[in-house]
Task: inverse folding
DNA sequence: GTTTATTGTTGCCATTGTGGCACTAATAAA
DNA sequence: TTTATTAGTGCCACAATGGCAACAATAAAC
């Protein structure tokens, strides 16, 4: 990274008011921002920022540098725009894997629009709920729940993942609505099971605020979220599912969230996994398109569940793993 | 190196008309310029230069990019100037070694002026005619004749090095003026001898144009050029010396170039040697100051010998090891 | 006032990019 | 036609980058 790029990062730091925010926006570690700002000051031989451990202020030099930095960004933008007037389109194969539900609902729409924007990019999507070998099977990008087993891979959280417990009204008529997790545990459950993820216990916070788990009565298992939802709608089992599985089942009343007063912990976040950094441009652009489609603050799938943020003890303030924004 | 720096290099390439010239000016290998221009075109996704193996022309995109590149350079210059208004001075120790003559005449004056510009830089000069261990003895920079023995060091030619043969008028009265190298070989010579360099034969081109050497009659040896010059001035020996040894001895008539019709090959160039690339700024600045002081095209020491470029078969065109410039 | 959460910093390390060298191909100059 | 010079490229050593983990300190929460 050269001085010019560091100046542009400096500008972003000042505009965002935070090293941490810039890191999150750029999908890099916070330490990178810190180090690059230090290097910029070494390059220029002048201090631009006075820092405390949680904030900073501009020096006189920093204030003056800011004006020039804005002109620099504008000019560089114009320069790059010239190039784009002569651009050759990005092309090549983009091979992506995802779990089935996420793939169908969130990756596929993005891929369709992405190929409209870049017709010369070939996209290959593999919907796999089993563990995949990202490197060995030649994937450019993988979307998974939870961190990868292979620590040599790079993984970024792109959306928080919250669970909810749903049942059909018919189910509640048959079994009565459970008031406690212990009551729930006796009822028949439909649960998710695949190589990568197997649900047999539910974690929750007890009345004393301690996180604990309870073994549930799993009577039906499948590795497809739609199948679990169908089973729940049939009224013959309840299920606990990630919010991203829900389409309009709650909006339409076919499924009802239950035990919403119980506090549940966030589940493993949805991650984008890639084999190494320095992604090709088409991969980076696709990654960003998916993240924008899902939504950076609140995953769009949570909008399918009215008042979801008031259920299960979720904080009203956003506790997303991708970072909390101050106003 | 980022896109902005590559754009600035692109601008320089166009202005200089040559990858090779830019490389020489920046003290980098020619392959670096080639590769960076290719990367710039990859970054921008557009071709800027059409190349043949010895020249290039601008594409339409390249022409348009050129205008923006000039604005970019100007703005970046202004930005850096702001920083310099708040600058802290470069400081630290700069430890340099050089052969005695070069050190006294060319390094010392530069070091004096350099420390006036940068009072907080300490300079330590070691005048050594023996082989030195650049890394082991902690030198930042060494100026030597000829390439270093240790191939792990980085070495750049900074000045060509041509020999001449001089004698005092009194010497010529005593022995007569030699007309051939064979006649010269019989006369008493004062020659240079140190650990690093020992002269006992003179190379020259014979009447058929073949490079050959002749053993000379070395009657006096010293490792100090001034001493050899003094011996020659005394009229008791001639000597063959590098041009950088000559001050005003020729201008004043105290020494006369002889056998000037004989064609002599260039000798090992004067090199700057440093332990690794990525030099600290003070070292880089000092290096550039020395190179400017010596002169990039024709070493300034050659100006001490009137009509030197017409002697000894030296090409009228400049055959400096640091590169030849087309008009 | 105390405790907790968050941010900026820094050491360490694996990975990637840079820069230098050697060699090649091709073209301009001799 | 021959020679010299320039741009290109493969290979490799070295330096920079980016990520992770842990720490210190401060702002926010209680």
Result:
């Amino acid at each position: 990274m050269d001085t010019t790029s560091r100046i542009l990062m400096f500008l972003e730091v000042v505009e965002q008011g935070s090293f941490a925010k810039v890191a999150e926006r750029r999908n890099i570690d916070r330490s990178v921002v810190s180090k690059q700002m230090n290097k910029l000051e070494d390059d220029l031989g002048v201090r631009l920022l006075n820092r405390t451990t949680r904030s900073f202020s501009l020096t006189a030099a920093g204030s003056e540098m800011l004006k020039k930095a804005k002109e620099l960004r504008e000019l560089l933008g114009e320069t790059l725009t010239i190039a784009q007037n002569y651009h050759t389109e990005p092309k090549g194969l983009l091979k992506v894997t995802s779990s089935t539900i996420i793939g169908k609902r969130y990756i596929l729409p993005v891929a369709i629009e992405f190929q409209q924007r870049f017709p010369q990019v070939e996209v290959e999507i593999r919907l796999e709920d089993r563990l995949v070998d990202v490197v060995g099977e030649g994937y450019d990008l993988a979307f998974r729940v939870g961190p990868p087993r292979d620590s040599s891979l790079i993984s970024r959280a792109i959306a928080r993942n919250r669970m909810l417990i749903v049942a059909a009204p018919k189910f509640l008529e048959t079994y009565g609505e459970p008031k406690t997790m212990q009551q729930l545990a006796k009822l028949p459950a439909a649960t998710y099971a695949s190589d990568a993820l197997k649900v047999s216990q539910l974690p929750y916070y007890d009345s004393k605020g301690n996180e604990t788990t309870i073994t549930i009565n799993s009577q039906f298992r499948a590795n497809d979220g739609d199948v679990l939802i169908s089973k729940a709608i049939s009224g013959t089992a309840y299920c606990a599912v990630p919010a991203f599985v829900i389409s309009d089942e709650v909006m339409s009343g076919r499924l009802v969230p239950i035990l919403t007063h119980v506090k549940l912990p966030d589940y493993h976040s949805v991650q984008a996994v890639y084999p190494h950094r320095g992604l090709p441009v088409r991969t980076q652009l696709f990654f960003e398109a998916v993240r924008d489609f899902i939504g950076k603050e609140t995953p769009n799938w949570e909008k399918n569940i009215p008042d979801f943020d008031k259920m299960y003890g979720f904080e009203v303030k956003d506790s997303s793993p991708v970072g909390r924004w101050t106003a």
Summary: The domain at 163-265 of chain A is CATH 3.40.190.10 (D-Maltodextrin-Binding Protein; domain 2). Chain A has nine helices and 14 strands.
